[in-house]
Design brief:
XapX domain-containing protein, about 0% strand, about 50 residues, transmembrane helix, transmembrane, 2 helices
Length: about 50
Amino acid sequence: MQPLALLGGVCTLLALVGYAAGVAAPYPGRELTLVGLMAGASLFFLGRGSA
């Protein structure tokens, strides 16, 4: 697996965990998990596209 795709997958996974934690118990800055999700998905697909 490409390193960029791996980084994107990890970032997406962490953002999803953060989002779930924010739904269970609201905390300041939880909206940044959406930014992490978008950035992680972008990195993942960019990494998968490079050969």
